Amino acid sequence: LKDKGFWVYGVELGGVEISKVNLKGPTVLVMGSEGKGIHQLTRKLVDGILTISMHGKVNSLNVGSATAIALYEVNRQRSLWQIEKKMKIFLSFDKIKKVNAITVTK
Hints:
The chain has 106 residues and is of the alpha/beta class. Helices cover 46% and strands 19% of the residues. The chain has a three-stranded parallel β-sheet with strand order 2-1-3.
């Protein structure tokens, strides 16, 4: 998958906070188990380790909950990216309209 341009991230304790990493492009998430995390060999192959920050006394999530949160973050970033992209197109179009309106009135 890396050869196809995918970024491969492991998700377990002790990594970079997932919301701090750009997940807008082609991404693979390898989920670690609650007790053991990601297998050592797999950890060597991923591009980075991501973690889901938690507060309070809980120090781990089951893999289903962690996967849901991680996929939510991927979707959140991609949704925001699409909105930003549309806004840039709209603002560029608006500038062109204003320039044309000024040109026409001269």
